[in-house]
Amino acid sequence: MKVKAAAKINLMLDILKRLDNGYHSLFMIMQSVDLFDTVTVEKNNLNKILIECDKDGVPCNEKNIAYKCAVKFFEYCNIEDVGVTIKIEKNIPMAAGIAGGSADGAAVIYCLNKIYNTNLTQKELCEIGNRVGADIPFSLTGGTAVALGTGNVIAPVKDLPDCLIVLAKPQQDVSTPEAYAQFDALTRVRHLDRISMIDAVSNGDYEKICSLCGNVFEQAVEVPKRPHIKGIMRKCGADATCMSGSGPTVFGLFSNENKAKDCYEKLSSKYNQVYICKPTKSGVIELD
Ligand code: ATP
Q: Taking the complete model, does pTM exceed 0.70, yes or no?
């Protein structure tokens, strides 16, 4: 079975507190975008989970998020025949804050539920995904949603109005655990206007959403190129600019297509990983 797995951006990311178990209580407004990995899952006769990926640097072993998701799925369903081969065609940049690994993990959970005829509900699939990572329940859901807790509570809201999203990843990798450690070391956090954002996304109010976009990781994670990227986006007429996830990817929202294309061109001449995207309504899309 073959699916497309969508990347995401955070229109808002606030961290409410660090929990006793080391996890964090999150408030996130998520949006899936049409930048996809392609994931193929097929049964094999080896009773082993095999990972293949076309991109160097992606771990093709038990460290892969797709592998971890398969293990959690088989445990949850008490399945002993775990022979599956997972092929990942990688287009989503890694360690970028746009859920590249989580998208692959979500795709695997989605496919295994079909291949093994386990008929799990969306809620159960999300529960399995949340055992591996905070972004996986959303990656299974897609569209526009509020994500709370450890990413386990997902509330879909009105679709983000049509717009273009320009993504730029500077040449820097951010490790998510390190980003949380840097956040924990902050002595003061400027929290975001979450209540107004709930109102804005409930009503699909693009202008208000743009005025409220924000990410507390910008206070903790140093991304030297962030001001430069944001400056270009603003000059090109972005309605909002913000970092996604734990970074370093920065996105700009544009209601005007020509301005977005101009921004894409300008950034592409300076950075290697620049994308122009549209919002999508789902996280996992079946191909065959
Ligand atoms: P996420 O929200 O999923 O954490 P991210 O963009 O911050 O998104 P990932 O792209 O998931 O980070 O990658 C983080 C690290 O996880 C990478 O450095 C890589 O070594 C490892 N990894 C494990 N599985 C995958 C995968 N399927 N795709 C990409 N990276 C993976």
A: yes
